[in-house]
Amino acid sequence: MAHPGKLLKEQKYDRQLRLWGDHGQEALESAHVCLINATATGTEILKNLILPGIGSFTIIDGNQVSGEDAGNNFFLQRSSIGKSPENLLDNDPSFFCRFTIVVATQLPESTLLRLADVLWNSQIPLLICRTYGLVGYMRIIIKEHPDKWTIPKTYKEKEEFRDLIRQGILKNESGSPEDEENFEEAIKNVNTALNTTQIPSSIEDIFNDDRCINITKQTPSFWILARALKEFVAKEGQGNLPVRGTIPDMIADSGKYIKLQNVYREKAKKDAAAVGNHVAKLLQSIGRAPESISEKELKLLCSNSAFLRVVRCRSLAEEYGLDTVNRDEIISSMDSPDNEIVLYLMLRAVDRFHKQHGRYPGVSNYQVEEDIGKLKSCLTGFLQEYGLSVMVKDDYVHEFCRYGAAEPHTIAAFLGGAAAQEVIKIITKQFVIFNNTYIYSGMSQTSATFQL
Asked: Which CATH number belongs to the domain containing residue 427 in this structure?
């Protein structure tokens, strides 16, 4: 009999368990998320992370938390009073290394660069989120998140294959085809079911990666598993990945379906055991304990081997460095004067404004007009310093002055949901994160990603 607690958990998280499975839910429940700044965006992110069952949170506010704040915001506790990220970076930077992931909202550029450097060196993922007027911005900073006849490819070839299936349908005495649902199902699924068994390019990239080729005692478990998978493909797999062990629902009698299912399950067990042998040999060769990689990890990798992918993001220092800035990405995106990359340039300009004037442009109504010239000067200086020969329309300068660094709840709510989704991907190590910058425009209701 199933444990009552497990049944309750399955009922509570039924839909999300279908998305990321038991192992994904366990990862969420054991995660410790740090949120910097309990802004509108920050609290929206928290709300969307609490519902899936994240284990624990720590909130650090940019301004020192008062007793009144702790009483007004239900996300804050008395233990939050008196802490700020700047003080922690000055006195105890290792404080941030205890978390599964750090989410930073509305932080000034100087603090972000320091925080990003600490987390990058400690291999702790950082998600930067920002709502500025009608603009949403996210930046992920993480080092790594993998017969004799040919299969019909063209429409004509697949139509011929459908005709071949139709010929197998039984006919009655008058010559009319019988109503055979399984044949009809096969005909309908020709387009989706006929796929080659070649190794996906994303898996080839993992196999050819230096971290997969050069295994050491310090190599993360993922790369050891990837190397074992590579050796399996070259030997037992004969060029193929391990069998997943599952088959889709289909119209068939129960006996034949179960028999077919068992064939796939047994082959999957055999393949996983072969990969496990390669893992054991690799661990022995580098002097690591056999139990350092669990059987659960091994089975999980084998069942999802066709969907592996590694996303590598650049550090914030590389993005902001004069010698390492990705000019090509910015300039090529500016082929359209209203591309979302313009909003990124404006965010960098308002950060420069804040650095020079100690405030954001247009915070007070009387400052809007006088700040237009100052912000335009900051934008020009930024573009010249980074060698970006692009033109930004004055309309954007005026608009960002009118924003006054406001954080409209509609934009914050949208960004909070999107950010929480990326956090879940990173924690569960499932699904593909964006690489590496996401910009949302509330004016045009469009979004784009850039590799900056």
From this structure: 3.40.50.720
Mean pLDDT by 10 residues, the chain (452 residues): 55 67 82 90 91 87 52 46 67 84 90 90 92 94 56 49 51 54 51 58 84 87 88 85 70 70 81 87 87 83 79 88 91 88 94 92 86 92 91 92 92 94 88 88 92 89
* Beta bridge partner(s), residue 138: 129, 438
Decide: residue 69, CB within 10 A, 0-12 exposed, 13-18 middle, 19+ buried.
middle
Q: Are residues 250 and 348 in the same domain?
A: no
Both tokens assigned to 215: 């295994």
386/389 Cα distance (integer angstroms)? 9
Give me the number of domains the chain comprises: 4
pTM of the model: 0.73
User: Looking at the domain assignment, is residue 440 inside a domain?
Assistant: yes
314: in domain = no
Rounded Cα–Cα distance for residues 275 and 73 (Å)? 51
Same domain, 128 and 242: no
Q: Domain residues for 269? A: 197-307
Q: How many CB atoms lie within 10 A of CB 55?
A: 14
